[in-house]
What we know:
GO molecular function: acyltransferase activity
Order of helices and strands: EEEEEEEEEEEEH
Strand content: over 45%
Protein name: GNAT family N-acetyltransferase
Shape: globular
Bound molecules: thymidine-5'-diphosphate
Number of domains: 1
Largest sheet: 5 strands, antiparallel
Number of helices: 1
CATH class: Mainly Beta
Helix content: under 10%
Radius of gyration: 15 Å
Keywords: Acyltransferase, Transferase
Amino acid sequence: VVGCKIVHINTIPTVDAGELSFFEAIHDVAFEIKRIYYISKVPEGTRRGFHAHKKLKQLLFCPYGRIQLVLENEKGREEIELSDPSIGVMIEEPTWREMLWIQKDSVLCVAASDFYDPNDYIRNYEEFKKYLDELGR
Length: 137
Ligand code: TYD
């Protein structure tokens, strides 16, 4: 997906008892994980996101439900549906993201490379496009 990588998360199935997924710092994620956050209790049809980050790297995954991601960066714009707990999306460059909750109560989890910093956000789409242009120069 555009400049973002689809990653397979280590997953161990158990007969008739579900599956267990995991990833480890250093071994499975190339950046130092400094923060985990998750978005839950979201009604079906809700859209969130509408921002990009300048520096932050993130691994997004959906341990429960169905969430559509729209991702846009230097390389283009693409949609991807997250519905498999063993699949994640690695965002490593400035990428505009919009998330649509296709299924009620879907959970979006994020492992991030840094602490929360409001100054790392670009919350205006036109500003994001300008930021990309400036990077490209
Ligand atoms: P925001 O990133 O705007 O969520 P979304 O893009 O999904 O709509 O975050 C929502 C609020 O939570 C905003 O006020 C910032 C705050 N927040 C923190 O305080 N710490 C965090 O780690 C994150 C991700 C958000």
